[in-house]
Amino acid sequence: SEGVTVAELADALDVAANDIIKRLFLLGTPLTMTQSMSNDLVELVADDLGRKIRIISPEEENSFSFYDDPSDLKPRPPVVTVMGHVDHGKTSLLDAIRHTGVARHEAGGITQHIGASQVEIGGRQITFVDTPGHEAFTAMRARGAKITDVVVLVVAADDGVMPQTIEAINHSKAAGVPIVVAVNKCDKPDANPDRVRQELVEYGVIPEEWGGQNMFVNVSAKKGDGIDDLLETILLQADVLELKANPDTFASGYIIEGKLDRGRGPVATVLVNRGTLHVGDAIVAGMSHGRVRAMLDQHGDNKAEATPSDAVEILGLDSVPNAGDEFRVFEDERDARALAEQRALKARIEEQNKVKHVTLETLFDEM
Ligand code: GTP
Ligand code: MG
């Protein structure tokens, strides 16, 4: 069955279902609560109720891949995710990278954790997404979220390839994301970076110097050795990808992290994929919507706008969105609200169906 039912529309418009049934009858289309309505009929009834609605097609809802005119595309910075086996030094590496960036950017500044960090190397930006562990990566990919351009695979030189190293390789390959290998802990006496290279060949991750596709860098997150080299390598990899986006349109992208802040209300870290996000924009993120009240960078400084590959914290949503939710800006706040409500309604119906399903099973169990 296509379209929403009478009951669903009543719910979405927050009016009594009987009121809608009455109007449908007067329009010459008698329907019951559970019968579904055509889009035309939905618009007619809404109009009759003095409500203006816009029906959004699934195509429109998934319009991230809208084809931009190539002449509108401009280079954008890479978005990078760090993955690897437990204890191989992912967090230490990010700390070392952040320290490099922060030290250059604003000496002594306190860096706030916003689920992403941006560093500047020789005037070029790299955005690191901190969140995805392997599970988060899978979940986001399952939802179609494109959240990373490059994976930095951290492998400890004293430990070599381990189960989660292989898992990370599989995730990256499935997502079609290139891997830069950071062979970490090279300061350790028992470090054997060449063994790591040999082991990885088995999994199709082959060093460029051996004729493969992958760039390798020996680092020590602990001592800070090789970090500059790694950042330059990431930029080289990014150059190969020729990353581009159209900055001159309504912003869209993904939620990296959402939380409820006692003082500030719902706070979301967003990654902009396309367009430019401004303070004041009408935005929908998953089932939340609102106007961007304030936008902050990782240093807690206010930003007026965020362009493709920027990660910023935004305030102003009416509820907390989930990591992996898409966000997008609408010209009209009512459209943002309509989409958020439509999604909430869909989620409620799915939830109800789930409950029914469980009840039925329980019933059978009892019989
Ligand atoms: P999980 O988040 O638990 O998966 O670990 P992780 O990959 O983030 O590793 P983390 O950065 O927490 O480092 C694990 C341990 O390795 C810590 O004790 C670090 O101090 C140590 N370590 C990380 N990098 C280096 C390094 O370059 N050299 C040495 N010697 N130790 C390191
Ligand atoms: Mg860690």
TrEMBL record:
Region: G-domain, residue numbers: 78-226
Domain (Tr-type G) ranges: 75-244
Residues annotated for GTP binding in this entry: 84-91, 130-134, 184-187
Protein location: Cytoplasm
Function summary: One of the essential components for the initiation of protein synthesis. Protects formylmethionyl-tRNA from spontaneous hydrolysis and promotes its binding to the 30S ribosomal subunits. Also involved in the hydrolysis of GTP during the formation of the 70S ribosomal complex.
Similarity annotation: Belongs to the TRAFAC class translation factor GTPase superfamily. Classic translation factor GTPase family. IF-2 subfamily.
Protein name: Translation initiation factor IF-2
Gene (UniProt): infB
Whole sequence portion shown: 326 to 692 of 900
